[in-house]
Structures are given as structure tokens and as C-alpha cells.
Automatic annotation (TrEMBL):
Species of origin: Paenibacillus chitinolyticus
UniProt xrefs under Pfam families: GFO_IDH_MocA
Gfo/Idh/MocA-like oxidoreductase N-terminal domain span: 1-108
UniProt protein name: Oxidoreductase
Classification via PANTHER family: BILIVERDIN REDUCTASE A
An example molecular function term from Gene Ontology annotations: nucleotide binding
InterPro entries, per the entry: Gfo/Idh/MocA-like_OxRdtase_N, Gfo/Idh/MocA_Oxidoreductases, NAD(P)-bd_dom_sf
Amino acid sequence: MNVLIIGLGYAGTRFSQAFSNLDPAVTGNEPVEIAYVNRSPKSNGYRYFSDIETAVKEFEPAVVVVSVNDEYHIDVIKQLRGYRGFVICEKPLVHPQDDLDEVEASLKHTSGFALDLVERYSDASITLKQYVKDHNLRLVRANFYWGKDRINDHRPTSGVISEIIHPLDLVQWVSGGDAELELKDLQGIRSDFSISGTAVLDSAAITANLAGAVVTGYSSFVNILRKREVDLVFASPANKLIFATMIFDTPVWDIDYLRIWEKTNIGERVIVDLKTEIDESRPELNTIRKLIRLVGDAAGFAASGAEPSQPFADLPSSLKLQKLLNTIDADARTIGPVQYVVGSEREFFNDETNWERLG
Ligand SMILES: NC(=O)c1ccc[n+]([C@@H]2O[C@H](COP(=O)([O-])OP(=O)(O)OC[C@H]3O[C@@H](n4cnc5c(N)ncnc54)[C@H](O)[C@@H]3O)[C@@H](O)[C@H]2O)c1
């Protein structure tokens, strides 16, 4: 199976590792061949193309991964116009200023599409989603806190919309139903945290409605410690409150936690208490354990039409999410800009061993 990765930086490299570690059965034992398009070639043994058109024509990829920086997604997507294979696109789908009709038209002929919303592939979110469905729970209230430190990171970014997309998706994803999140109050903070500008939206706090439930949350790219938590309260058909909390990538990447419980007269009745297990004997899978599930689903679907383990974050749902992000970007009442460049120039730390640059 031929896989073309467009943009072989941090995210693209993780995709190459995920595809290289796929169970061969997924592709019907067809070996995975990887090629890439990048600003410049790398010495990694993969076939390099300097332009997308030639790569698609000559390499005939069954799967294309779009993992260039946010602001270039649209250019790449436009160049995929007419492509008939499967596209995996890094989040966010595009930059807030980009034309969504053009995105839709360009990807119209693809055989399938998945946005990389990798937390959908966590056992924590999968288990909660299933529990909510099986027990016909109705969301009453949700709150999230989702942040990491990207201060003085050397990669361009569209800002906090690239981070808040995860909890916005998760709340809707686990609570099921077709209702759309309606954003209400939006507040933000701007800063020069990123090389992408002097007043980029680095954090956002939202209030929203979702099918009668109230959703609140805060997300940030200047949170000095990584923190990824979603708390939810549901009502059961027997009119009991059911509580759930999900914590992701804590204390290390790939370790996620889910607890579901109800209150009783003698304390709490714990319904689910789950901490994801990782196979320590395979360090090559560190940080890509969830990604490999998404990649496996995409490869299986592209190879033989196999049903994915989860429905993909397809183009319609990705466009809906992008509209929410665009609203946050455009309408948040903001304070700042905060100045993180406190000296005469920005200070960069190129610590290749720092896993915090992920995500
Ligand atoms: N899902 C996640 O958790 C997650 C994690 C990290 C990054 N991302 C996303 O992945 C994307 C890439 O981020 P990154 O951290 O890998 O950045 P990066 O800067 O490390 O890599 C981007 C790569 O794309 C290449 N590139 C840029 N424009 C190009 C173009 N027009 N044609 C060909 N190559 C081009 C660059 O040379 C670079 O190698 C972003 O959209 C980011 O939001 C997602």
C-alpha cells in the first residue's frame, strides 16, 4: 500500500512511524511503502517528491496524509482536487480565513476522509461513548480544561483553535446524538507566544449549549503544564445523575484515565475505573499508540473497504468543527497581547528529546 505524507515534520514523522508499525493483516499483507513531499528532502530512506502533483501521479498513493503546518493545509487540499484515494488530515482542518466551500469541492472525490482527532482512539473515550449509548444517558453538563505549553515553539500555528478542537470534539463525540454545539460566550487571550504573529489567540474560554446541556471550558497553548481533562454529568433514564471524568496523556503520553460513578447513601458506586495499559516492551510505539489505531482504520478501509473501529471524523463533521473554531477565532472578546518575548529577541530551545513538543 502506497502512503504519501505531505509535510514530514513532527506530526508527519509520527504518521510514518505509525504506518511502519501497522499489523500487516490490516493491508492484507501488502507492504506499506512510504513517500513524502516536504519543503526539503530528508535522509530517511523514503522516496521524496518535491511537488504534490508529480507524487500523486507517479506514486499513486492509496492514502495521503496532510501534515503540513496549519496555514498550508488549504494549499495542499486544493492540490488534491480530483484525488480519489483516502485522505487523513492533521487538525485543524484549515486556517480560520480559508474558504470551506473550496475545501469541500477539492476533497469531493476522495474515497474517504479522516481528521486526526486522535483522542477518539483512546480507550477512555471509546469506553465512555459506549457506556453513554448503552445506558441511554443524556448530557446535563460538561467542563473541560485542555492546555499545553507552546511558548516560543518554532513551528507556525493558527493558535489555540488547534488545541481546543480536541475537547470540543470529545464532548460532542462521547455524548452522541446529532445535536450541534452552539457557542455562547467566548473570551480569549492574545500574545506573541508563537512565531505566527504578535497577537495570536493563545487561549480561549467558552460557554456553549449542546442539546440542552451546558458546556464550558478553557483551552490554551500557553498552559505551562500539559493538562487534558474533561468532566461530564449525565442523567440516566431512571433520573439518576451519572458522573464521568476523562484525563488524557497523564502522567505520560498514551496513559489515559476514565472514571464513571454515581453517588449513593453510602458513598460512591464506581461503575468504571479504567487506566489505559501500554505495552512497555514496544518503546517504538511510544506516543503513537492512539495514532496507530486511526492509521489502521484508514489503511484497512483504503485497502479493502473494511469497517473502521470508530466512525472517521469525516469531512462533514470536520467542516462543522472548523466552523466552531472559526467563530472562536473571530468572535472571542480578547485581552492582551501578552508579551513572552521579554528580551531583544525570541529565545528558542530546540530540545529534540522534549516530548512536550508533541500534541
Ligand atoms: N493531532 C495532533 O495531536 C497534532 C500534533 C502535532 C501537530 N499537529 C498538526 O500537524 C501539522 C504539522 O505540525 P508539525 O508539528 O508537524 O509542524 P512541523 O513544522 O514540525 O512540520 C511541518 C512540515 O511540513 C513541511 N511543509 C510546510 N509547508 C509545506 C508545503 N506547502 N508543502 C510541503 N511541505 C510543507 C515543513 O517543511 C515541515 O517539515 C499542523 O497542522 C499541526 O496542527 C497535530
